[in-house]
């Protein structure tokens, strides 16, 4: 049986009622408040304060402040007027019971509405996080496809130019062969004529010799290639692996990263006994990675996880395998596994250089998305800020980061 509190006090203005309820040593976190437009309850076991108010109040704008052992309740009135009494003066227990039950029902309905709104907000945030990840993945796929298309067009153009040069060389060679055949026929004809006219005089013979000599000179002139045309030779230099200016480059870090990449390509567990039954291509991590990428693009996320997992068993030092498997776990809602894989990828993507900047941004964004789906918005914000620092002009990352800040600010406001 609760102890009814009677040593309360109250004051009023024409628009507001102020009620002071002593808490009698109770801690603030153990005090339960319930307020509707006609009923007020303050319960801190074993004490209970109830007020069946004389007039309606606006419970949505009411406030409670607890301090120095007193709870001060501020209730704005629905209409500007002075009350003669704080509570109704009736002693009808049934009426009070009806008011109490009506207040409880209204309070429960309000809690259900708030719970539904919160659940809807969480679903909207989860959907937004998934859409963001899908958008990032689609942008990455589009970028790769565009690069492949550009390389294909360049190769086609180079092949067409080479074929044109080959045709021109063949045509020139055919012309020379035709000219040689004509010269040979002319020579045979002259030789035949000489045999038929062997009785000609010495003067005629000398004339023929001079004519043959001139014909030979003409043939030699025809066989000689034409002078080369003048022009400029285009010289192309092999680009640096890291396009950073030397005075701004991080040469030791870049060298360390290249060494790690080389070690990752050399390392592997292909000789493990349980992997002996695999086909030759299935023991190639790069082949398995391409297979996982195709499965992911087709929506078979579980198949992609299996391909990446087998590749990781063969070689654990390739960062892309862990990062891509994290993206699959995000699709499958395996959030803790996604965080673990993204963290492993970030550990392998060290030291931080220009060559692995894009991969670090993707891994950070994926881990941040997993944190946000677990409602760990502070941790997620840190990862999104790290990705945004690498790619500051990415509009999608900017929008996601701002959205997470808004969620955190809204949570802080609700707590206050």
UniProtKB/TrEMBL annotation:
Q: What is this protein called?
A: Dynein axonemal assembly factor 4
Region (Disordered) residue spans: 106-125, 170-195, 259-282
Q: Per the UniProt entry, what species is this protein from, by scientific name?
A: Eleginops maclovinus (Patagonian blennie)
Per UniProt, residues of the CS domain are 3-87
Write out the annotated subcellular location: Cell projection, Neuron projection; Dynein axonemal particle; Nucleus
CDD domains, from UniProt?
p23_DYX1C1_like (cd06469)
PANTHER family membership: DYNEIN ASSEMBLY FACTOR 4, AXONEMAL, DYNEIN AXONEMAL ASSEMBLY FACTOR 4
Q: Which UniProt keywords apply?
A: Cell projection, Cytoplasm, Neurogenesis, Nucleus, Repeat, TPR repeat
Q: Could you read off the lineage of the organism from its UniProt record?
A: Eukaryota, Metazoa, Chordata, Craniata, Vertebrata
* SUPFAM superfamilies associated with the record: HSP20-like chaperones, TPR-like
